[in-house]
Design a protein that fits this description.
Blueprint lengths: L2 H9 L4 H13 L9 H29 L20 H27 L4 H20 L13 H22 L4 H24 L1 H7 L4 H5 L1 H24 L13 H13 L6 H25 L1
Length: about 300
């Protein structure tokens, strides 16, 4: 395997659609405004992808050196675990991707607010640094928050809150209550993806001392928690769209059927390894939901 293919594998391409779902929804809610910027939209997509790649490199590194990625783990084999990248190479990858992400973020901030808007420049620059810190600190370091059951909270805040609310504000420089509702929908579904990952790896994580929220809850309560996340997102999504006057409000409703089926599969599951396909399905369903919301709002 060439180094290029190894780095592509380390970037975990299957995780990237979920990383841009909140950005797509946040921008979709701005489409009706005359000052909507397609350039900003594209740059925000690239920035979100770059943050996710940082997280994937750091996750590979952090779980690898802690011994969490081992032969007992049920998920796909990681590049550090497989000996395809060294500790130094992954560190360099984390640094390089962080610099690239920061350059993209600064470009977005300057285009959106201009060099004279010092307050917004400061706020969003701080959020960019916090995003990079959060991407790395999930598994890296002694205080890694992913090992303390806080990963779910951070995913909700960043994949839902910052992605949807932040991208909306970058475009329009204001907030709206409906934007918050959409942020919760995407946030809950994104946390659901993480919870599936943690339910799949629950036994191994518990054995090596990785205290994810699923480990704290245990297998039965983790399933109930998953129902709350996916069921809550589904109900909220239906509620938001049936109260709108959009001609194409039914488009996002198409994901309700796979979400209901997904909940049934998870509740009846008895083999953790079989949760892995559901993880991919839920991530892609969330991405397709964001695209359908974008199309529905674009068509009006």
């Amino acid at each position: 395997m060439t180094k290029t293919k190894v780095w592509i594998r380390a970037a975990r391409l299957r995780t990237l659609p979920l990383s841009v779902s909140g950005i797509i929804v946040g921008n979709a809610l701005c489409l009706s405004e005359n000052n909507f910027s397609w350039i900003l939209f594209l740059l925000m997509l690239l920035t979100a992808i770059s943050f996710q790649i940082i997280s994937n490199f750091a996750n590979d590194y952090g779980d690898g050196i802690k011994g969490t990625d081992n032969d007992a783990r049920l998920g796909p084999e990681r590049v550090f675990q497989a000996g395809l990248l060294s500790r130094k190479e992954l560190k360099n990858g984390i640094f390089a991707s962080s610099v690239f992400a920061l350059i993209l973020a600064i470009t977005v901030i300057l285009l959106a607010f201009g060099a004279n808007s010092l307050f917004y420049l400061g706020v969003f620059l701080a959020l960019s640094f916090i995003s990079i810190w959060a991407a790395i600190s999930y598994t890296v370091g002694k205080g890694a928050y992913g090992y303390r059951g806080l990963g779910d909270l951070f995913v909700l805040l960043f994949f839902g809150g910052l992605s949807v609310l932040g991208s909306y504000f970058v475009q329009l420089k204001t907030f709206d209550f409906n934007v918050l509702l959409f942020a919760v929908v995407i946030g809950f579904l994104s946390v659901g993806v993480l919870n599936l990952n943690n339910m799949r790896d629950l036994d191994n994580d518990a054995a090596v001392g990785k205290k994810t929220f699923a480990v704290f809850l245990g297998k039965t309560k983790a399933k109930l928690y998953h129902l709350f996340l996916i069921g809550g997102a589904t109900v909220l999504l239906i509620g938001v769209f049936i109260t709108t006057e959009l001609n194409y409000f039914w488009l996002p409703m198409l994901v309700v059927f796979p979400l209901v089926r997904h909940m049934k599969v998870v509740v009846t599951n008895k083999l953790p390894k079989k949760l892995d396909p559901e993880l991919k399905k839920l991530a892609l369903t969330t991405f397709f939901l964001s695209v359908l919301i974008f199309i529905a709002l674009h068509l009006g």
